[in-house]
Amino acid sequence: MSVSSELAGTAMPADTAEGSVGTSEIQAVKSVEDNAKALRLQGDAYRTGKTDGVAQDLSRALSLYKEAAELGDAVAVYFLGVFHEHGMGMEKKELRQAVAFYMQAADLGVSLAKYRVGCLYRRGFKDEDGTELVPVNHEKACKLFQAAGDKGIVDAQFAYGYMREKGFGCRKSMKEAQRIYEIACRAEHPDALLRLGLIMRDWWWHRSMMQGNQMMVDKSNERVAQLFELSAKKGNKEAVANLAFAYQNGTGVPQDFNKARAMYESVAGQGVAIADFQLGILYLHGYGVPIDLEKSFKYFETAAQKQYPLALFQLGWMYHRGTGVEQDFSKAAEYYRKAMATGDWVAYVCYYWMTYGPLRRPAPYVGLFFILLLPIAAAIWLAQTNAPRP
């Protein structure tokens, strides 16, 4: 399992107040005969190799953590979990034992352990042979993230905010998610900066527009661009793409197609589907570049490989109309169906129009069906837009 990831867990945290190392502190702790903490801090020194006169030695660190844990040091128990999960200072990983140590440390009140156990419950956790060690349990994950976040663990704050935004294991609340992201943003957490920007751009923008408050819209757009820029500087590729989208549309920043294209290209083909899709849009319509339908089609294909809904629909439309590619109704139907599976109602309309519409010699009642379908679809969209938010 990856040592650091968004919600899968950050098993090796940076040195914190719970595990910071310093020669003077070690000596002070020894002077008051707090053997457990002294052993754990010595273990920290050998783990990091950052203390003067102490070279990194993971085997020695593991031994010291075991001694400290036996004397009741809860943080040492957490680090035993880290070492067993990643096979540090030992011949191989021992995932089952790692889970046991994490659970024990969480029960002892170690905030980092609560976050790590929350990550295990968030996605589930299996042994190397596929045996389930921790089942998926979003409710437990949410509670653990909240508890760890309340103690200042920034990764946990972001994780809890994400759970509230999506409604995983708790009541969905965009307002609460925004509040929590704001807290995590104080520490400039890159993913929290991105999610807060997206909430403000998509959800808060709609509320402002419905109220007719253009000043609020403009102010929100400027803040969104700032959030994306700060997240992008922290290395968040998705934030780079969303900042490029702001430059493409001139929302919160001056419109600049060349800057948008350069930003998209810097993260294109790296799993950021929105970047590939928007490059396709630029070349499809000639925004800041010459129209190039073949290049546009290729970018849409790359985005569609990530099951990006808009890219799936766009490919269906291009095959349907024969734009940049040879017209092929069967492939158009294939991509329309994939887009439909993501809930894209426009894909439904285009699919049935292509299949049963006037160009396909429909039964007499089909034309009436489409006359009724479009206003109904528009009414559904408006209802969703104006629906009260939690």
Note the main sheet.
Answer: 2 strands, antiparallel
Pairing-aware structural class of the strands and helices? mainly alpha
CATH fold topology of one domain: Serine Threonine Protein Phosphatase 5, Tetratricopeptide repeat
Kindly provide the name of the CATH class of one domain: Mainly Alpha
Mean pLDDT: 84
Percent range of helical residues: 55-70%
Our measurement of the CA-to-CA distance between the termini, rounded to an integer number of angstroms, reads 35 Å
Strand content: under 5%
Segments where pLDDT lies below 50 for 5+ residues?
A: 1-19, 361-366, 384-390
Total count of strands: 2
Radius of gyration (Å): 26 Å
CATH homologous superfamily title of one domain: Tetratricopeptide repeat domain
Output the number of helix runs.
19
Give the name of the CATH architecture of one domain.
Alpha Horseshoe
Note the overall shape. Answer: elongated
Strand order of the largest sheet: 1-2
Sequence of secondary-structure elements: HHHHHHEEHHHHHHHHHHHHH
Protein name: Protein sel-1-like 1
InterPro entries: Mitotic_Regulator, Sel1-like, TPR-like_helical_dom_sf
Keywords: Membrane, Transmembrane, Transmembrane helix
Organism: Porphyridium purpureum
